[in-house]
Each structure stands twice: as C-alpha cells, then as structure tokens.
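thread from #wetlab-drylab

HS: before we spend reagent money on co-crystallization trials with zinc ion, can we at least see a predicted complex? here's what I'd submit
DV: go for it
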Amino acid sequence: HITRTLRNAIASGRIAHAYLFSGPRGVGKTTAARILAKCLNCVNGPTITPCGSCESCKGITTGSSVDVFEIDGASNNSVDNVREISESVRYVPSQGKYKVYIIDEVHMLSTAAFNALLKTLEEPPPHAIFIFATTEVHKIPATILSRCQRFDFKRIPFRDIQTHLKKIVTKEGIPFEDQALFVLAREADGSLRDSQSLLEQVLAFAGGDLKASHVAEALGLMDRSILFEISEAVVGKDPKACLNIVEKIYEFGYDLKRATSDLLEHLRDLAVMKVTGDASLLDLPDSELERLSEISSRVGAERLHMLFSIISKGYEDVSRSAHPRYAFEMTLLKAAHFDELEPLGELVARLEGLASKAGSGTGTGGQTNVKAPATQAQAPSANVRPSAVPWKRDAEPAVSQKAAPAPAAMEVQAEAVEVEAVKEAQPAKTGPDNGLLEFVGKRNKELFELLKGATFEVEEAVVNITVAARAGAKLTVLRAALDACLRDFYGRPVTARINGNGAAQTGAPKQKEQDPVLMDALRILGGRIIEDRRRTNV
Ligand SMILES: [Zn+2]
C-alpha cells in the first residue's frame, strides 16, 4: 500500500515537502525513507526505479551522500539543532535535485524545536524534502502533522519474519530447527530488524547451529514445551504435576509474570483450536499444532473459557503479589481443581425427561409407558429423540408399578403429568418407548422375538440392552442386523451393548430396588443421598 501510493506520487511528479512514516520499531520506516531519497535523487530521478549505482544512490547506501541527511531526533532534539537544519535547508543541493532530511524518532523534539521546524515547513524551499519517522505519532503536534503526508507502517506478519529468518540461515548454511526460528520470529514481535539482531545474538551464544533450546537459553525464555506440560496437568486435573512444574519454572529463574501471560496465550490457542478446529488460524509450528489439537480434544470449550478467566485473574495476582510463586501456584491449583460445568440446557433437558418419567412412574398400571405431553411435543415422531434425554423401557408395566413414590419436590409436577397421562392413555396405547420394538418387529421377526421383554437404555451413541442370558447370546450373533436396525431407528450411528444377565425377564434390574427417579436425579445432578426424608404415600 505504502509503496504503491509513493510510487504513484513520484511517477506523477506530485512530491510533498514532508512525509511522516509512523509505526512500531523495526518495521522498515528508515529503510523506506532511504529508498524514497534514492527515488528522488537518482540521476534518473525522480524515478520509481532508482538505479542503485549512480553517485547519489551509492552515497545514500553508504550514508555519505552530501544531499541526504539522517538525523537522530532523540539526540538532536533542541531548538538549536533544528535551527541548524533550517539554515542548511536554504542552500541548493550540490549533487542531486533535492536536499532530503530524514529525522528519526521525530517525536523526541522539544516543543521549541517543533515550533522552529514548523516555520521551515510553512515555507519550504522547493528543493527541500523532510521525511520524519516515529514510533509515537501521538506525541507530534497537530500543526506538524497537518503539513505531512502520513504513512502508517504495520507490524510485519509473523510468518513473513519466519520466512525471512529461514532465508538467512539457509543462505549462511547454518543448520537449524524450525522451532528455533518460530521462537525467534515470535520474540521479534513484528519487527524484522529485531528478528535479525536476535538471530545474531543466539548464534553468537550457541555457535554452529540453531536449536530451540539455544534460543530459549540465550534469550532467557521459558521452553515452550513447559506450556504444554502445564495445560496437560491442568486439563488432566493433576494438581501435583502443576506444583512440580511451577518449581521447575521457578528454579530456572523464568519470569513468572511472563510465564503466566504465555500460558494465557496458550489457552487462547487451545480455545481457538477447540472451537474452530482450524489450525491455519494459529501461527504455530506443526509439532505444536499436533499437541495442541490432542489436548483440546480432551477438554470442553466451556472449561477452556473458565480456565482462561482463572489464569487471567491469576496474571493480575502474580503481577501484584509480593510472592508471585505462591500466586502462580494457587492459580494453577484452582485451574486444575475446577470442574467442568455441565451445559445448563442439557441438564434441563435431562431433568425434563426425568420429570416425565416420574409422571408415568406414579401412574396406575397400563399408563406406565405414556410420556409427559411436553416430551411428546419435542418428539412428535418416534424416530426423533432428543439425544440428551435418557429413557428406559421397563421390562413389564408391573415392574414400574413397584417403583417407590417420587421425592416430594417432584410430586407437584408428577401429579400434573398424571392428569394428562390419564387423558392420553386411551389413544396412545403404545408410547414412544415402544416405537423401537415396533420398528424392529417390521424389520426382523427374529430380532423382535429376542428383544421382547428387554430393557433399553440409551446413552448418546450406545444402547444398553438387557435381556435373558440365552437371548443375549443369540443377539450377539445377530449384532450386525441389530446395529443396522438401531441406526435406522435413531437416524444416527448407534451401537448396541448387549447385557445378557438374565435379569430382564425374571424381574427388575438391580437399580429398580432403589427409587429409579431418585437414582436418575442423583446421576444427572451428580449428588448423593445424605438423609432420606421422603413421605411414604403410596
Ligand atoms: Zn541512481
């Protein structure tokens, strides 16, 4: 963008007297200023393709040009310095067509110096060109800004820096690890110049070859594999491993604040991987992407979000604490201890399923299979079932009659459901629970015979089928046909888990001895019985 605008201006002869190049350090502002100077002062100039070999071009390259001046604004920031410049501007160039003043870090000029500069900018001699470079454009007075053509330089993309470094080491014949270039490019933070000086620093330290461990050691960085160790320990809820890692980090003398902020970035990467599954969104080497995707597969998005806010809070604690190590430890312990909350919607759906069962459970014989109207509305066709609602088909209606009454909390709803159930009992002899058997009956008589009297329990992709031992053995032989039936009935891949313990025909499964509704509620909510205070009102 910048080069195109500048090129067009030069090509059409619309040359401004003052340019302002702003942007972070090391992104090529000064380099661009020198190129612009060459474009203007080349023997063929103004041209968009300076020859690079004339006196003027060579002079600019070596810094010996008599018409191009590079001034460091930080050390020449007084009004006197600017007055000298204003004096010299008045004389015509000796060699080229323009006198070019490149003032770096121009925001460092004093107020008086800016005022003096403004006078020159208000009435510049026709041959005078100013190119200002700055990292802090907000410190430049508006009066100066309004007289400049401004160009904003952006950070150089991480991947471009990595490619640039790769070119250098390849050209120099230095053996390197990709991970080492990755860490260097990351540290350079958008600055090509920084990336080069970091590379030199590491090579001076490590000598012959470029390894990730050399980079970490030379620059005092934490080895990135430690980040993965932390996330593995946290995701795996292993507080002991967390403490060991903190000790390791502490003994190496890494900055804990920096470690925490690296960890935040790492969690962000995990979340991006989890939610999008798109590795191209992450600027990471392949080896890290692989490990990242493995860890992200073991943790839910909800938990990742919670972990991020825990570590975020931890960053503040570590930064402020007089004992950053303990703050870091507590943060990780909290993160490792934190349990994933079940998505609320799913929980509600399962409780609704339970409530409807409570309704049928307290009903009289013959109505046991009738589900609550709400559930029927959700699943108008027997083939469509909300997957989050577990359901059981009782072996015989008589069995569920034996079920103990619902807990008091359930009772109000249970009674309400019962009224509906009585109304619907006549037309709906076969509730949705019978749909599967009917379906099987039409498809495969042999399977139908074996499944009569079986207990079904659906969990996500598995149907637990409890039948008598002999039927179980036969079902196992017919497994392929059974799985196909289940898949077609549920409209998704479902596998049968056949349990031939014989309980199905002789009586209720063991769990039925307890109140099934209560047991289900405990399972869904993850609770346990402390005291049984139910009323007995059968
Ligand atoms: Zn030239």
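DV: The first helix runs from residue 2 to 11.
HS: ok that's useful, forwarding to the group
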